[in-house]
Amino acid sequence: xxxxxxxxxxxxxxxxxxxxxxxxxxxxxxxxxxxxxxxxxxxxxxxxxxxxxxxxxxxxxxxxxxxxxxxxxxxxxxxxxxxxxxxxxxxxxxxxxxxxxxxxxxxxxxxxxxxxxxxxxxxxxxxxxxxxxxxxxxxxxxxxxxxxxxxxxxxxxxxxxxxxxxxxxxxxxxxxxxxxxxxxxxxxxxxxxxxxxxxxxxxxxxxxxxxxxxxxxxxxxxxxxxxxxxxxxxxxxxxxxxxxxxxxxxxxxxxxxxxxxxxxxxxxxxxxxxxxxxxxxxxxxxxxxxxxxxxxxxxxxxxxxxxxxxxxxxxxxxxxxxxxxxxxxxxxxxxxxxxxxxxxxxxxxxxxxxxxxxxxxxxxxxxxxxxxxxxxxxxxxxxxxxxxxxxxxxxxxxxxxxxxxxxxxxxxxxxxxxxxxxxxxxxxxxxxxxxxxxxxxxxxxxxxxxxxxxxxxxxxxxxxxxxxxxxxxxxxxxxxxxxxxxxxxxxxxxxxxxxxxxxxxxxxxxxxxxxxxxxxxxxxxxxxxxxxxxxxxxxxxxxxxxxxxxxxxxxxxxxxxxxxxxxxxxxxxxxxxxxxxxxxxxxxxxxxxxxxxxxxxxxxxxxxxxxxxxxxxxxxxxxxxxxxxxxxxxxxxxxxxxxxxx
Amino acid sequence: xxxxxxxxxxxxxxxxxxxxxxxxxxxxxxxxxxxxxxxxxxxxxxxxxxxxxxxxxxxxxxxxxxxxxxxxxxxxxxxxxxxxxxxxxxxxxxxxxxxxxxxx
Lengths: 646, 104
Prior knowledge:
- The structure holds 2 protein chains of 2 kinds.
- Chain A has helices at 4-28, 33-59, 93-116, 123-142, 146-164, 171-202, 207-215, 219-226, 234-249, 258-261, 267-276, 281-288, 290-296, 298-319, 325-346, 355-385, 401-415, 421-436, 438-463, 483-498, 504-507, 525-542, 548-556, 558-564, 569-615, 623-645; strands spanning 61-62, 65-66, 69-78, 84-91, 228-229, 232-233.
- Chain A is mostly helical.
- Chain A is globular, with a radius of gyration of 30 Å.
- The mean pLDDT of chain A is 84.
- Chain B has a domain at 28-91.
- Chain B has helices spanning 6-26, 30-55, 61-91.
- The termini of chain B are far apart.
């Protein structure tokens, strides 16, 4: 294991680069900041890779079980002898896996942005924000304390807000960043209450102690299970509230509304934050507390499963109708994260039952690769076409060969076609679902088919369909993207092919023991066939420009329109907030505040003012007058004294 | 001489005191006001001496106090005159009515 200092460098390098760029670099050598950010992250990535290598292959195991290590830990804020907010680093299979993913994807995005953001006015600011985000995310996954994770959780939220609103002169970007911040913040309220509930019953904030106390038969667990509130035990409430925070960050229904709008940020940011890293924070959180969920909080785990599968299905349907390519990708992200969530939800703890957990983490890993790749390709396409709309694209396969190939790889991977990465993780998830819950399994298979359909709808609309007509007549086109943009595409494309071959069950399991993941060829026939069917359908409808899609959407009429409008969820939210919340609660409260609360304060102030004006003549500035008051006073006291005591 | 006792002393000091107060309240000239304050202080001195002599003839506390007060009065006069000089520099007058900026 590398020394504690070296591990601490993983998050420290990005924060140092953030501070340096923001304070010094931005002003004096803005052109150089991109290289600087990239280099610091390269350092982080190398250390993470070394750590992962040593943890997984050399000394992470004790008696064949991966243990949890805390190389660094110090008390930051002590509430009582047992309860303190610690700052520490916790290494276990999932956090080690996460630091590798986060630093790798972030590094790719950094390199890609060197080309993509070139010539941008706030180039240096952009890199400082990227560094800040990477720091927060690394801090989040390495947290050893549930409150520490909350702190970094909020930092991630803030940096996401900054990056979504990067083009702050665009009103839609500002609105999107506010929306993302408010929605996730609202969810985090639940998270905070959940933390407090769990901490209250377990008497600790430390992850390891928390998990031990709430999974073995202790007084704390007894207390938490027997105390009930509104028909559910306190433990279930705590876990559900924590999950609410996770659902907010991971864009689970009904807190998903911010994710599609978040696509207003620069595309590499979408790749980094809204595809590969931040949005899986919720999954990570559930995985972190997984022993509690699976051993003592089955009810909460069922909620996780159903929310996951519903979001997955729901987002897949919406994705079929969207025309903005980034929005399609956003909904597919939501759908895939739903996959990870329900995989956790159907999983048990330990041994064979823990297959869902392994599958979920595996899917997180592969998804990060191909989803980042999809977004980066979309970025290259948008860079070329100067538009997000599908109708402006088409026939780009000859013009951008490398982007085309890598995008195809990513689409095959997400559709679950063997031997690409997504196939393996998806099969594991489906197997886990098959063994535990039939409803979820059926829905998941259907979702997989829809996924294949809409991804290839996207692919054919961008690269095939009609021949490309530039909307910028007279402008000379720059052809395929530059080298710094292509390099990450190729690397991620390679990863999307080979990532599925990693024997994941050996490394990341719910209880640290190795799990041999069996692979049933007969089982995978149905999903693969369905996915292929989805692809063929997409090919039929979108490969050549024709009127069939239009006919179908017209045929569906109102249904199509409501799906296109994302089932009016945004409108429902607006109605709920504007009409109900604002009118029924907001306005009366504002009236009360303005008239009663302010009124009382104003009355006091006015009264004081009036009295002061009335008696200010006493303060005449004439010394002798004061002396007279003084003598009169003394005389008065004397008389009083004589009258009372003599 | 024998009929001069404590009451007579107190009467003199009271008269002196009220003359001082009257002067302090009516005069507008700061120097005169300062002098009035001296009168008030001296009336207190007389009180101390008188009580000391007629009530506790074997003690010296009253005398000590008197000496203290005389010393402090001298110091105070110096300070007061310094203030008056400064006021004069600002207002070109030593009339208290003119120094009326310290009001609402």
